[in-house]
Protein: DNA-processing protein DprA
Amino acid sequence: MRACDVGDVIMGRLVAAYGAPQAVKAIRSRTLPPEFVAQEAQQERPPDLTTRLHTWYARLAAANPAADLAAGTGSGARLIIPGDPEWPTQLDQLGPSRPLALWVHGDADLRFSCLKSVSIVGARAATPYGSHTAAEFGVGLGESGWTVVSGGAFGVDGAAHRGALAAGAPTVAVLACGVDVCYPSNHETLFAAIKEQGVVISECPPGVHPTRARFLIRNRLIAALSRGTVVVEAAIRSGALNTATHALSLNRHLGAVPGPITSSMSAGCHKLLRERKAVCITSPEDMIDLVGVMGEDLAPHVRAPAVPRDRLNEPTKKVLDAVPARGGAGPASIAVAAGVTLDAALSALGGLAAAGYIERTPRGWRLRKQTTSYRKAPDTLALQPPPTPEPDPTELPPPPDDLLYAGYEG
Amino acid sequence: MRACDVGDVIMGRLVAAYGAPQAVKAIRSRTLPPEFVAQEAQQERPPDLTTRLHTWYARLAAANPAADLAAGTGSGARLIIPGDPEWPTQLDQLGPSRPLALWVHGDADLRFSCLKSVSIVGARAATPYGSHTAAEFGVGLGESGWTVVSGGAFGVDGAAHRGALAAGAPTVAVLACGVDVCYPSNHETLFAAIKEQGVVISECPPGVHPTRARFLIRNRLIAALSRGTVVVEAAIRSGALNTATHALSLNRHLGAVPGPITSSMSAGCHKLLRERKAVCITSPEDMIDLVGVMGEDLAPHVRAPAVPRDRLNEPTKKVLDAVPARGGAGPASIAVAAGVTLDAALSALGGLAAAGYIERTPRGWRLRKQTTSYRKAPDTLALQPPPTPEPDPTELPPPPDDLLYAGYEG
Structure:
């Protein structure tokens, strides 16, 4: 693992073809198998194998695998390789960039935890809106039995992990440094909590510190481990968009949470939506709907609230619309205005009056005041208006002049 | 116009087939042409023509076209019918629901104004975010030579009209009442301003007050007049979504502005995005990009800011990443860490030092403090770091621990 940097696809192909022990032997002897050299020469962009071998040799000479193993196991972590029972086989889709091995630290089983998992990624410099959303998603997914995979960073990552922990669910933090290195250092408590309820994993050997390149290469693991990735907040230039690209190239689901267009921290999400690369995600249920198995994890559809008026039949609605709010009108003029026959108007007026929608005045029929604002329909009979006008907390009050058409006219 | 309610498609077909004078004559005589009756009977849902004719007759008997014309022209409006030079021919796409005529009040030419136009629709009970966005879109579209079409209501509509007026651009308000009726009454000043710079139009005769049905039917005109519609804010149950449906069925472009997922006033927009019915719109330029002619109205693409580091070549970047931030390291260990040869490392270190990225200390090479945060690249040479660290107002400051990887790791 020390011989090459993480994500070295040439090393990946070498190990895939000959196994790790043979690969080490070849590097030690500074001679690559001739078939491998011939094969690599046929790549679209043939790599400079001599330089690469030289680098591997120098790194291997400086490496101390026994010390790494001792440091890793000493810190409480375990090393897993492809074929182990805990190895998440979905990583095999990474092809030659599949990690050679993974350090895993924590009480949960990595493979089992990732069977039903969603990756939550986003800006480190998240806004309060982004952190709030990430935490809500962490809780919502955790409570529905989904594991949250993220990068353990500040901002969106940390909030998502904390949300999942709060829901009592396992969560997986994929680090760009050794699992015994605490980066960012303020997250020591968070990582300790994750190790108790989930796992902290890394493909980097113990003691390795993060570099820019390791963050970018780490992101492919976050995308590959889960069924889908949701970007909560991301600036136009953001590592979260890099993870999103990995998710798309692995044919995983991709979601993006919208935000105010005035926030530069949502610009990356809006770019994904605008280019139709990501699905618009407004709740954990939306995400489960996206990645879940059909018929098993379906989210309830957002539906328009029903209002009592919906239950009136068409002619009655027309008559109700034709009754004036002020003054009054006779049945004949209402029938003409509504475009129905006089008989139909008279019958509808009777029903509407009995239900309290309208009232008879000396000047004719007019609307009753309390029925001009519409609220959610109670599950009762059609012609039963709500007895008292109580404010609906889910709706902003419409301007008073418009009460009559609340919720209809845009 | 008084004989039927607005949007009566049977009347539309009658007038289209026989002309308005013949239609009036037929209704007066209470006998529809036999071919028309036979044709209507073949409709998927054959209408009850007897009742309909009866209603038309009663309405026609109560109508006073001369008084309507006098009232309309007296208020300063003009009546246009299909075929007139000012008639916007894009309304013909409405088929039988095309309005029989339009009352137009204002100094602008309706057809000319709508040639390059965008409809901005949204909630009356808009949040400050929605009103702000609508106004910004009104200004942005107006300044780019686009006419804003909207419904003259409170909230999004009003803000969009005001934005267009502020940009000195024409704007079209499509009312659901007579053009001489001021609804909402608080918008008297706004409508007066629109009449000076644009037009207020309606298919309703003078004096007619708005009803729920007229609002919904009016919406098809807002969608049909422009090249595309953008929904700024909309609850799940909203007239703006009705306009959006009309825009889609007319094959017009549809955009939706995202907002916080915590705002119920953006839920309708998010639904359109989630169902991939609308394109995500974050600026007036996005909307122009959507509705504009290719090569003529292209919006600039949102691009990630360039940082000085982008201009370094790959081996130099690797070496820079391998240089420690604290302490120091010799060229040999940096070469091993970066995975490059010693010669390449020495050459890169020299260049990086000359450019001020790194410095030599008694303990070896290390990063220079002021180059660890990256800002927008000046348009100069690659290896020239910005001289003084000045804060970038477009980026939130990353947490201090993370300065090294600002903008990369998510």
Q: What stands out?
A: Chain B touches chain A through 90 residues (CB under 8 Å).
